[in-house]
Automatic annotation (TrEMBL), chain A:
Lineage: Bacteria, Bacillati, Actinomycetota, Acidimicrobiia, acIV cluster
The protein's name in its UniProt record: ABC transporter permease
Location of the protein in the cell: Cell membrane
Bilayer disposition of the protein: Multi-pass membrane protein
Transmembrane segments: 34-52, 64-85, 91-112, 133-155, 186-209, 267-287
Coiled coil stretches, renumbered: none
Length: 300, 510
């Protein structure tokens, strides 16, 4: 039993890694008043570019860097559309997602699967500090030991974080106080997109080691839900990610139990998503959206 | 004052028909109305005059059932009316056209009017169309019933709103600043409609406005509201526009201090405006030029909507100039931005304190919002210094708060003190201060004014834009009066009186 518990915890940390990265990225973005629905697409595109580059160069690190650059580029396009042009954020985000997914799928077909093959790399291996819980990928360690505190510190303790929160709540007031609203929102979107890209790259370069169609499998959408569930607070967001991942890891273990062999695995597979829906329904009232959520800023 | 006398007389002298008695209403700590009584009569145009925030709209929203009074009652014919919703109000014969129209934009005129009376199951658009045509002819309000609302100009949308109210059978019609959204020609035709409704259909009309000219043209009686109280109620024919402006903008009750002694020696001009012209949808500035010297308070007075808001926006860097330039200490700034003005030493207190405050952020965070970089190393905020800065501001400016409280939870007066603390702790060379005491109680008002005086004594050049004449008379060394986007005159503060300023504000040059 202890083994199973440890297995579940260890596995949920792996599952939570890309979710936490993407959700933190979305949180930074949304705190500046911008909703980035491109998260699923950015994860998808970065997952593909990451592994394609790694396969090409033989270097996982180069692959990761390429993935992060892809995320940054996608973020820049998104920022240009939503901040500079003031395009509807839903449209721009969904458009970005559709584009990134289709682009990756096409490129994947042309480059790798036209002869029935699949792009594969020898992925990063878990680093074992003893026991199933402490046998994790370096990105998982980095996420929870470094990125999480860094993000908290960025939002609560740095000048940039204060600027991001100010432009997300009241851009007019920030502008009159001398804060460059456009620059601050670009920065937040860029940081957020790079986080999302890291989440995507983790899946192909560490977790799976290959690229298949639909590899992100809705993780980006779950990340969006986590931000709302977490009420834009990092602690609550992580609690949500942990809950989702635990249920997910739990159902993976349940599938292996003989007594569950007659239950269709799709039902178990749906459990974590059911939890998301219930979680959102429970926590979804009186949501403290950032004051300028979804509103482009223009001086009159 | 003469055009309507003949027409109105017929129905004049009718007994008052609706009484509002001792109405009071507060929103949190802001008192919107205090013990207001008013009577409305059929066949009479009753103007409600007052500055922004005086309580006109709140009073009429109470009458129309959009909000409930804390105390007080509404009576008709000796019977108390219960008005809990606009539906109740319409049943009592009261209709209202609010500033934001309540029309469904993607529907036609017929559909919109049918909505007001629609049954659950049957929908007889043909008969509604007939009724509309009959009513348009009767009231002289021509509309095309099948036009889609969004395709109509604002003036016609307003006409549909009026028609909708009249067709619900109202005998009293409240018009909330109806001319604010109209061009000059549409204003004239609306005023004609108002006269006609009064004299031919005997409708009692409440006209909320702060434009003297239209009140003189159509109103029979005028009640002046100031800071939530009725300060005057009289026939229009007995009042001059200067008197009305004086009543609307000042009374002695809140004049809290002696006029400050004018300093004889001002420094050099710090802020100079040179021929500034801008045009926006809401108003314009026309060749505005003046300067403010070190240690001087220049007041800008005027009836609201004569360019003051645009002037403040130019000086906050959020409105692009068509012509002219802003000069600070001899340096010409050309096109201004908030950043360039701040670098030049201009500080700003905006008219709407909620627009310059980030409610969700803490008091201490708001206090450093305009100088984050001074309170941060390359990597992080200097939390301790920010806290100390905030604590000393709380002591110095007597703010009732703790540093970590979200700003949005503070009362209006304390929020204003936070914003003033932010402004003055930067030691600005120029302070642009707009409507600093609007909505504040007497104590807070007095304190805010003393802060402004102190800053000027310390050498800051202060530009004070205020619709409160007492405030301007109390603080300003010179008063620039704005009329239709231009400076119509600059008067020495020590010799200015409410009468001389009132004349200028009405557009009359000596």
């Amino acid at each position: 039993m202890i083994d199973i518990t440890q297995e579940i915890i260890g596995s949920s940390l792996r599952i939570a890694t890309p979710l936490a990265l993407a959700a933190l990225g979305e949180l930074v973005t949304e705190k500046s008043g911008v909703l980035n629905l491109g998260v699923e697409g950015i994860m998808y595109g970065s997952a593909f570019v990451g592994i394609a580059t790694a396969a090409h160069t033989g270097s996982l690190t180069t692959g990761l860097i390429a993935a992060l650059v892809t995320g940054a580029a996608a973020g820049l396009i998104f920022a240009f559309l939503t901040v500079t042009l003031g395009v509807n954020q839903h449209v721009a985000g969904l458009g970005l997602t559709l584009f990134m997914i289709s682009f990756s799928n096409s490129a994947n077909r042309i480059m790798f699967t036209s002869d029935g093959g699949q792009v594969r790399v020898d992925p990063w291996r878990p680093i074992d500090f003893g026991g199933p819980i402490f046998s994790q990928y370096w990105i998982t360690y980095a996420t929870f030991l470094f990125i999480v505190p860094l993000t908290w510190w960025l939002m609560r303790r740095s000048g940039l974080g204060l600027k991001i929160r100010a432009v997300g709540e009241n851009p007019e007031a920030a502008d009159v106080a001398g804060i460059d609203v456009t620059k601050t929102r670009y920065t937040a979107i860029l940081i957020g997109s790079i986080y999302m890209a890291a989440g995507g790259a983790f899946i192909t370069l560490a977790f799976v080691g290959s690229f298949t169609i639909n590899i992100i499998n809705g993780r980006g959408w779950v990340a969006l839900a986590l931000v709302i569930f977490g009420r834009w607070k990092i602690g609550r967001l992580l609690a949500g990610a942990a809950l989702f991942s635990l249920i997910n890891a739990g159902q993976l273990q349940l599938r292996l139990l003989p007594s569950f062999s007659n239950v269709p695995f799709e039902i178990l597979l749906a459990l974590p998503y059911l939890a998301v829906i219930i979680g959102l329904a429970v926590s979804g009232r009186n949501i403290p959206y950032p004051g300028a959520y979804l509103k482009p800023y223009k001086r009159h | 004052m003469n055009s309507q006398e003949g027409a109105g007389v017929v129905i004049h002298g009718t007994a008052p028909s609706i009484f509002l008695r001792n109405i009071s209403k507060a929103f949190g700590e802001t008192i919107a109305l205090s013990d207001v009584s008013l009577d409305l009569r059929v066949g009479e145009v009753h103007a409600l005059l007052g500055e922004n925030g005086a309580g006109k709209t709140t009073l009429m929203k109470i009458l129309y059932g959009l909000t409930q009074p804390d105390t007080g009652l509404i009576e008709a014919g000796g019977v108390a009316l219960t008005i809990n919703s606009p539906r109740d109000a319409r049943a009592a014969g009261i209709g209202m056209v609010t500033q934001h129209f309540s029309l469904v934009k993607n529907m036609t005129v017929v559909e919109n009017i049918a909505l007001a009376s629609a049954n659950t199951f049957s929908l007889d658009l043909a008969s509604v169309r007939k009724e509309i045509n009959a009513a348009s002819a009767k009231f002289g309000l021509e509309v095309s019933p099948d036009a889609v609302i969004s395709s109509l100009p604002v003036a016609l949308q307003q006409r549909v709103e009026i028609l909708k109210a009249l067709m619900s059978g109202c005998r009293y019609l409240i018009l909330d600043e109806p001319t604010a959204v109209l061009g000059p020609q549409d204003i004239d035709s609306l005023l004609e409609v108002i006269k006609k409704l009064r004299s031919e259909s005997g409708i009692g009309i409440v006209l909320i406005s702060h434009k003297m000219a239209e009140i003189e043209q159509v109103a029979d009686r005028v009640s002046v509201l100031r800071r939530g109280k009725v300060v005057s109620n009289s026939k229009v024919s007995g009042m001059s526009s200067q008197e009305l402006i004086g009543l609307m903008m000042g009374n002695d009750e809140v004049a809290v201090a002696q006029r400050r002694p004018t300093q004889q020696l001002f420094g050099d001009p710090i802020l100079a405006l040179k021929g500034i012209s801008v045009t926006t949808e809401s108003g314009e500035l026309n060749e505005v030029s003046f300067d403010v010297r070190s240690g001087e308070i220049v007041g800008v007075a005027g009836v609201s909507g004569n360019g003051q808001a645009e002037l403040v926006r130019v000086l906050s860097g959020t409105l692009a100039l068509d012509k002219g330039s802003v000069v600070i200490e001899g340096n010409t700034l050309g096109q201004t931005t908030p950043q360039s003005l701040m670098r030049a030493g201009v500080g700003m207190l905006g008219e709407d304190r909620h627009a310059s405050a980030v409610h969700a952020l803490q008091v201490m965070e708001n206090l450093v919002l305009d100088c984050i970089d001074n309170f941060a190393t390359k990597f992080q905020l200097k939390q301790k210094e920010i806290l100390e800065h905030c604590e000393s501001a709380i002591t110095q400016f007597e703010i009732k708060t703790t540093p970590k409280q979200p700003l949005g939870t503070l009362s209006g007066g304390n929020m204003q003190k936070v914003l003033l603390a932010r402004l003055f702790s930067r030691k600005p060379k120029v302070a642009i201060i707009s409507q600093p005491t609007r909505g504040l109680d007497v104590m807070a008002t007095r304190y805010v004014r003393s802060l402004i005086m102190q800053a000027s004594t310390e050498g800051t050049a202060v530009l004070l834009v205020s619709e409160d004449l007492d405030e301007v008379l109390e603080l300003a060394d010179r008063v620039a009066v704005m009329y239709r986007g231009a400076i119509i005159g600059i008067v020495d503060g020590s010799t200015a009186t409410r009468e001389t300023l009132g004349q200028l504000m009405a557009g009359i040059k000596q």
